[in-house]
Write a structure and sequence with these properties.
elongated, alpha/beta, single chain, Rossmann fold, about 550 residues, four-stranded antiparallel beta sheet
């Protein structure tokens, strides 16, 4: 930063010297023999130092932006999942992209602004050397104009803040337009109304706000530029009557004022970029504060040693969340449940019954309002929840598929290729440079790739949320009748959220969630019930 500022000062210092050479030539002052070389040399110095300062500042700001993105990304990984849900995906993505880029772009302009400030100071110093009374008058005029200019900028700055908020809303609609393209194409009336009523209205609202902000800035900046020409006109017409001076001094003063219009305007017009940078910095700092998370120290070497207790145990666990049907809160629980190691447990239930929320509680991604979550008899809390999560591998219904094979101990390429062959994907997917050759596949095939990644993790507990929902009948049968038993034979504990009642016999237990309460669904064809010959019915767990 200091190097960029020093180079910028060198660049600025060459400007007034060039003005003096030009004014001497206009006024008929005897020119030195090496005038041309001096002038060209100063021009070269000005060019090289300007480019140099901007290049140094560009390196600094891009490095700072890179570090900021990496730091914020790590904080996103460490932050509680419920906090990320409350912040919202559009806001998080907007800050990591537009706000960081906007802040970096504004910082890159700092050397140029510093150069212009030095030019202004140097020119006023030269003016004071020529005629200090006139320079003093111009300084007083500038002191009056600058605060007035900033006062007039308050309204455009407020409009810029509103404009940024409206852009977040537009980004949310654009995301819905892309992710919901299938539904919109199946209902053309909905698609047309979504564009015409939702996107168009918000786009018009954004356009009106942007026009207000930018046009008001245009008025303010152009009025500021015109003010300098007014000052030059007044100086040429009134100053000779009050303060007689030679034609040479008057011409030099005029040249200096004309030369300073650009730097002063640049400094004043930097306000929109500075305002945007301030807004971006505020959003980044707010996100940074929202993601403050004191990661507790953990001793994973002694965590969850076998004690003879159930592998996972829920004791009176409750969680309250908004219902999908209305604005009233919905209470899940209290839930009492014990899952033994090596068990296959199915969880069934209607939409909005709390299946996914219960899965989040089991995974330690949601915090319970009351009750206890235990593993091997050890109570799960802030100090060990991160270690607890590492025992799970999960495929969510709305899963995200990473193309890179990350987080595995050692080289898993050979194992990945074997699973790809086994799951019928070898004609479409290969593994190269520790990544899948493509993830642009059908929904069912993407779920198979996700299952491969889960297999490679080799965690002790697996959770599948409606994994077989979009599989063909053949692979659905393979999943329930072959893959799950094979995982169980390897000592894995498996929790499956499923509506495939024709495969409930593959589970050791089938649980059902109804109105926030967990029940044991006793099926005559289930594993346990086949052995004990019980009749179908419901009983609390």
């Amino acid at each position: 930063m200091l190097l960029a500022c020093f180079i910028a000062i060198l660049s600025a210092a060459s400007g007034p010297v060039m003005i003096k050479l030009i004014s001497d030539g206009i006024s008929g002052v005897a020119m030195p023999k090496d005038f041309v070389f001096r002038f060209l040399g100063l021009g070269a110095v000005s060019l090289l130092t300007r480019v140099g300062s901007q290049h140094v500042m560009m390196l600094l700001t891009q490095n700072a932006a890179r570090k900021m993105r990496i730091r914020m990304s790590q904080k996103l990984v460490d932050a509680p999942y419920e906090k990320l849900l409350s912040l919202g995906r559009p806001k998080l993505v907007g800050i990591l992209t537009r706000d960081v880029d906007g802040l970096a772009h504004s910082l890159e302009m700092v050397p140029g602004i510093l150069t212009n400030i030095v030019i202004i100071v140097a020119c006023f110093s030269y003016m004071a050397w020529l005629s200090w009374p006139l320079a003093a008058v111009l300084v007083v005029v500038l002191v009056v104009i600058v605060p007035a200019f900033h006062l007039l900028q308050r309204y455009p700055i407020r409009q810029l803040e509103i404009m940024r908020a409206k852009m977040d809303g537009l980004y949310k609609h654009f995301r819905g337009l892309v992710e919901g393209s299938r539904e919109l194409q199946l209902n053309e009336r909905r698609g047309t109304q979504f564009v015409q009523k939702i996107i168009t209205e918000d786009a018009n609202d954004y356009r009106r706000t942007a026009i207000k902000a930018l046009s008001s800035y245009s008025w303010v900046t152009n009025a500021g530029d015109m003010m300098f020409y007014v000052i030059i006109g007044l100086m040429l017409s009134l100053v000779p009557l009050w303060l007689p001076m030679s034609a040479h001094t008057m011409s030099v003063m005029t040249l200096l004022l004309i030369y300073m219009i650009g730097p002063i305007s640049a400094c004043l017009n930097f306000a929109p970029a500075a305002a945007n940078a301030n807004i971006a910095l505020g959003r980044i700092e707010q996100l940074d504060a929202d993601l403050v998370y004191d990661r507790p120290t953990e001793d994973e070497s002694e965590a969850f040693q076998p004690t003879g207790a159930p592998l996972i145990e829920l004791r009176g666990l409750t969680h309250r969340y908004p219902s999908a049907q209305d604005d009233q809160s919905f209470l899940l629980g209290p839930i009492d449940l014990a899952i033994q190691a090596g068990e296959i447990v199915f969880i069934a239930g209607g939409n909005g019954s709390g299946k996914t929320t219960m899965a989040m509680l089991l995974l330690g991604l949601f915090n319970a309002e009351s009750g206890e979550l235990r593993m091997q008899g050890h109570q799960i809390g802030p100090a060990n929840v991160r270690a607890y999560r590492q025992h799970f591998s999960a495929i969510f219904y709305d899963f995200h598929l990473f193309e890179y094979l990350l987080g595995y101990p050692g080289d898993v390429r050979e194992s990945a290729e074997q699973y790809i062959e086994r799951f019928g994907l070898s004609k479409k997917v290969t593994v190269s440079d520790n990544k899948f050759s493509t993830i642009d596949l059908s929904s069912g095939q993407r779920r198979r790739l996700a299952l491969i990644m889960a297999y490679l993790e080799d965690k002790p507990i697996y959770l599948f949320d409606e994994w077989a929902a979009d599989q063909d009948p053949v692979f659905k049968r393979i999943f329930y009748t072959e893959l799950l038993p094979q995982l169980q034979a390897r000592g894995k504990t498996i929790i499956v959220i499923s509506h495939d009642d024709s495969y409930y016999h593959c589970a050791d237990r089938v649980l059902s969630l109804r109105q926030g309460q967990l029940h044991d669904l006793n099926l005559a064809h289930g594993k346990r019930d086949t052995e004990r010959g019980s009749n179908q019915g419901y009983s609390p767990v």
